[in-house]
């Protein structure tokens, strides 16, 4: 493919929330002659040589809109990928669609809203992890995995020293149900399991700040409530843990990154059924049942380090087959070439 336009919020590998986007850009750039990244803000020095950056960030909405429209218009005709923000696809559509080139929306979130419905209607294709990660029913939807850069997450053995260390990462939000993870650890400890859990994440909104403060009220010798870490430090967080946990009602990227790091994962979302099936002891649990989570924690604590590492290696292999950044980029470029 000669040229591809990619629209996103942030290009910065250190960004705690959006740092993973840089790996997706690099994978796409490796498959095209020229790539243009249009973003609100970014670092051009982290892009591959065949990438150009256009920044539309500005002090006012009107200025941002004008710069966005100019940037997209200047790069036509070329296929466009709108990354995560439905509004990007919606605003770009009157510029892109008359040129009869693909407009692809990548979206993974549980929340449905009017802008997303409109963006889906005007896009040629929608790509997401799977049908669980996109909140609308659409014949345009393509399930292409999460796009995990396995080179970012080395497969390292662990030494638990008798304490099972759980970790949960991501934005502090009530939707993440982090208090239930804490409750599961507490129940496991009541049953004699020496376990602890550390939480890491950003807030980004007043309600999330309040949620984090409530969690901080639960912090003690076996619960740590931490702040955000730069994206480049996330692999070391996984490396220092024995288990990665998620109680988010969505195909949480953290689960797949934990698997890529050769860590057993405990997850409640049904979208991970295929990823976790056949593994013993079971790794899936039911949301709203912290006692089941405690069962899973106890079962993993009963294993040796090498047994847990063997589970992790199996999970890494499954992520490589179904959720790697290379298979993700291949699917996007195939659609963009149509």
Key phrases:
7-stranded parallel sheet, 12 strands, Rossmann fold, 2 domains, 5-stranded parallel sheet, 338 residues, alpha/beta, single chain
Summarize this entry quickly.
The chain has 338 residues and is α/β, with parallel strands linked by helices. It contains 12 helices and 12 strands. α3 links the parallel β4 and β5.
Could you describe the largest sheet, including whether it forms a barrel?
Answer: 7 strands, parallel
Gyration radius from CA atoms, angstroms: 21 Å
Helix content: 25-40%
- Elements, N to C (H/E): EHEEHEHEHEEEHEHEHEHEHHHH
> How confident overall, as mean pLDDT?
95
The count of β-strands is: 12
Could you say which structural class the secondary elements and strand pairing correspond to? alpha/beta
Strand content bin: 15-25%
Number of helices: 12
Distance between the termini: 10 Å
- Shape, per Cα inertia axes: elongated
CATH topology of the largest domain: Rossmann fold
- CATH architectural type of the largest domain: 3-Layer(aba) Sandwich
Please tell me the total number of domains: 2
Given this structure, which CATH class of the largest domain is correct? Alpha Beta
Assign the CATH superfamily of the largest domain. Answer: Glycogen Phosphorylase B
Placed side by side, the strands forming the largest sheet appear as: 3-2-1-4-5-6-7
Low-confidence stretches: none
């Amino acid at each position: 493919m000669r040229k591809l336009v990619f629209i996103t919020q942030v290009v910065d590998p250190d960004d705690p929330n959006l740092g993973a986007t840089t790996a997706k850009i690099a994978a796409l750039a490796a498959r095209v002659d020229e790539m243009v990244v249009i973003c609100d803000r970014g670092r051009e020095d982290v892009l591959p040589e065949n990438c150009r950056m256009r920044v539309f960030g500005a002090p006012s909405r009107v200025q941002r809109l004008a710069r966005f429209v100019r940037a997209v218009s200047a790069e036509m005709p070329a296929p466009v990928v709108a990354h995560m923000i439905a509004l990007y696809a919606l605003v770009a559509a009157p510029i892109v669609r008359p040129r009869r080139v693909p407009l692809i929306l990548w979206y993974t979130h549980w929340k449905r809203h009017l802008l997303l419905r409109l963006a889906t209607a005007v896009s040629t294709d929608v790509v997401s992890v799977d049908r669980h990660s996109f909140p609308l029913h659409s014949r345009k939807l393509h399930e292409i995995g999460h796009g995990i850069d396995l080179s970012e997450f080395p497969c390292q053995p662990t030494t638990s020293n008798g304490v099972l260390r759980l970790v949960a990462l991501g934005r502090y939000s009530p939707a993440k149900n982090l208090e239930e993870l804490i409750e599961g650890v507490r129940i496991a400890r009541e049953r004699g399991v020496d376990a602890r859990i550390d939480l890491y994440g950003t807030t980004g909104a007043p309600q999330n700040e309040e949620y984090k403060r409530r969690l901080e009220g639960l912090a003690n010798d076996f619960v740590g409530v931490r702040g955000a870490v730069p994206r480049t430090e996330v692999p070391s967080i996984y490396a220092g843990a024995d288990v990665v946990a998620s109680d988010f009602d969505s195909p949480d990227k953290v689960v797949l990154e934990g698997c890529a790091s050769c860590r057993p994962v405990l997850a409640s979302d049904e979208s991970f059924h295929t990823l976790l099936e056949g593994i013993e002891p079971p790794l899936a649990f039911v949301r709203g049942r912290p006692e089941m989570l405690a069962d899973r924690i106890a079962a993993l604590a009963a294993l040796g380090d090498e047994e847990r590492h063997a589970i992790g290696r199996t999970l890494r292999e499954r992520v490589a087959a179904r959720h790697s950044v290379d298979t993700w980029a291949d699917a996007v470029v195939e659609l963009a070439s149509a």
